[in-house]
Specification:
Elements: H1 3-8, H2 12-33, E1 37-41, H3 44-53, H4 55-58, E2 63-67, H5 72-75, H6 78-89, E3 93-97, H7 111-116, E4 120-123, H8 127-136, E5 141-146, H9 153-166, E6 171-175, E7 177-178, H10 180-188, E8 197-200, H11 202-208, H12 214-220, E9 224-226, H13 231-247, E10 252-254, H14 266-275, E11 276-283, E12 287-296, H15 305-308, H16 324-328, H17 352-355, H18 360-367
Parallel strand pairs: 1-2, 1-8, 3-4, 3-5, 5-6, 8-9, 9-10
Antiparallel strand pairs: 7-12, 11-12
Helix pairs in contact: 2-13, 3-18, 8-9, 9-14
Bound molecules: iron/sulfur cluster (2 copies).
């Protein structure tokens, strides 16, 4: 057994037994299905954790672990990134963002490149800091880029509520936030994928609750398990998924009970509902998914950068050869891309999956090449 796996597991003595059980179950499941069981991790941090622990290669004979649309940066469409770049090019606008977005290439430029050309692009630790910065710089218009899933949306929603309460009128949000469950519906409905189960995102589940995923078992008959981020959590989740596959059952279980509750975080849900309305959103590689986007409500239009600044953005130009789109759908792995590790590396990324710390290509490049 690779020592890397055992190093990652906090208590190797206990975990060695669990891993041996998982390997045996995986072998039986492959025998039952007549092929490898296909599980998708719907979270970028899981992609990294699975690769770092060496679990993907350790179990590769019996389980096909696919990365899905779990990295918030990677799923952001080219058109949205180009719009963010357009904000940065506008005189008088300061673009506020989380760190990962800065290096993501749009179809013509990245925010990093615009910053080098003199644009005012600032990385803020939290959206609340961006509100404070806007209050201290009334001569600037601060546009904060709201990117991410149900995990980051509450903090961005709070910043809007905070700006309104404090009367900070030069702060607005460009919301490209995404809602996870509708994307999972789109994936399950894709016959090309033929999934046997989902490894559910821990942080998203902490906000929306385990119950929010019940539809996966009830409507699609697939097992799913809410998973934490330690290697031992992932091994436990695989154990639970494989057990369900072998028993022909479909339930949504919670292996991350130390953090995730049945009903999730009600306060975070309330603040999101106060600020955001649900609408359709375009996901890279998947296309438009109904009800999967969060946009500022009409009564908050003054804080909505998309309505406050109408900028012309030409249709996006997608980089030739980049397969990030197919990766988001779990149809391919980074190794299927001709550019992986050659023209596309973390220092010279062609697509977002190589930029983001949670991107599948970056995770494979760092951990799966040995
Ligand atoms: S926000 Fe958390 S749960 Fe969601 S994709 Fe990122 S790491 Fe995973
Ligand atoms: S290796 Fe680079 S070019 Fe290929 S899919 Fe990944 S990010 Fe895109």
């Amino acid at each position: 057994m690779p020592s890397r796996v055992l190093e990652e597991l906090r208590d190797p003595a206990i975990s060695r037994g669990l891993l041996a059980k998982v390997t045996a179950l995986a072998e039986q499941a492959a025998e039952k299905l007549g092929r490898r069981a296909v599980f998708m991790e719907v979270c970028g941090t899981h992609t990294v954790a699975i690769s770092r622990a060496g679990l993907r290669s350790l179990l590769s004979d019996y389980v096909d672990l696919r990365s899905g649309p779990g990295c918030p940066v990677c799923v952001t469409d080219y058109e949205d990134i180009d719009r963010m770049v357009a904000f940065a090019r506008e005189p008088g606008i300061t673009v506020g963002t989380f760190g990962d977005m800065v290096r993501v290439p749009g179809s013509l430029a990245s925010l990093e490149r615009e910053k080098a050309r003199g644009a005012d692009v600032r990385v803020f630790y939290s959206p609340a800091d961006a509100v404070d910065w806007a209050a201290a710089h009334p001569e600037k218009q601060v546009v904060f880029l709201g990117v991410g899933f149900e995990t980051t949306a509450p903090t961005v929603a709070l910043s809007v509520a905070m700006a309104r309460a404090k009367g900070v009128k030069n702060y607005s949000v460009f919301s490209a936030h995404k809602v996870v469950p509708p994307a999972m519906r789109a994936l399950v409905a894709d016959p090309e994928l033929a999934l046997d189960g989902f490894i559910l995102p821990g942080h998203v589940s902490a906000i929306i609750g385990r119950r929010a995923f019940d539809f996966i078992a009830a409507e699609y008959g697939l097992p799913a398990v809410v998973c934490g981020f330690e290697a031992v959590d992932i091994v436990d989740t695989l154990h639970r998924l494989l057990t369900q596959v072998l028993q022909g059952e479909a339930r949504v279980e919670n292996s991350y009970t130390r953090v995730v509750r049945e009903e999730g975080n009600r306060r975070a849900q309330a603040v999101m509902a106060e600020v955001f309305a649900i609408g359709d959103a375009s996901w890279r590689g998947i296309g438009v998914i109904p009800g999967s986007g969060m946009y500022l409500k009409d009564e908050l239009a003054d804080f909505d950068a998309a309505r406050r600044f109408t900028l012309e953005v030409p249709p996006p130009r997608i980089p030739k050869g980049c397969l990030c789109g197919a990766l988001m759908k779990g149809l391919l792995t980074p190794r299927d891309c001709r550019l992986f590790g050659t023209a596309c590396t973390p220092t010279h990324p062609v697509g977002p999956c190589m930029v983001s710390s949670e991107g599948a290509c970056a995770a494979y490049y760092q951990y799966e090449q040995r």
